[in-house]
Amino acid sequence: MARPLEDEPRRYLSIFEDVTGAPGEDCLIDDGTVVVVVASGELGEAIGPGGRNVTRFEERIGKSVRLVEDADDPETFVANTLAPASVYNVTVSENDDRVAYVEVADEDRGVAIGSDGETIDRARTLAARHYEFDDVQLL
């Protein structure tokens, strides 16, 4: 599904593809961090040997970068947005609203939440943009 992007995210995606050789699907700019959704199966190419590609991209744009691998199903996509946290299960509830309930390892709960809730907030934003979720909740 094509997502309309503003000029700055489109520019970052173009630079990302030039530097890494991997196709970017989406770009979110959040508190100085650029989050790039990488095409499914292309995360290794985007990172590069020893992290070389993603490091070159960060240096080129002068911002911190976080990569999320796209997925064909919403459960896998939501789990990918919370990486590197170990996600055991994602259950989608579609009652009055569409909510993804995510089970993470106890020791990774802080990783899934992130500093000041940034990781879970980004997961919520991306899940809404890609799969029309109303919320993402950790169990």
What does this protein look like?
With 139 residues, the chain is α/β, with parallel strands linked by helices. It is built from 6 helices and 6 strands, in the order αββααβαββααβ. It has helices at 7-20, 43-47, 52-61, 74-81, 109-113, 118-131, and strands spanning 24-30, 33-38, 64-69, 87-94, 98-104, 135-138. The strands form 2 sheets. Strands 1-2-3 form a 3-stranded mixed beta sheet. A 3-stranded mixed beta sheet has the order 4-5-6. It is globular, with a radius of gyration of 15 Å. The model has no long low-confidence stretch (mean pLDDT 94).
Low-confidence stretches: none
How much helix, percentage-wise, in residues? 40-55%
- Give the biggest sheet: 3 strands, mixed
Structural class assignment = alpha/beta
Measured between the Cα atoms of the first and last residue, the distance is: 29 Å
Name the descriptors.
single chain, 139 residues, alpha/beta, 3-stranded mixed β-sheet, 6 helices
How would you briefly describe this protein structure?
With 139 residues, the protein is an alpha/beta fold. The chain contains 6 helices and 6 strands. The strands form 2 sheets. It has a 3-stranded mixed β-sheet with strand order 1-2-3. The chain has a 3-stranded mixed β-sheet with strand order 4-5-6.
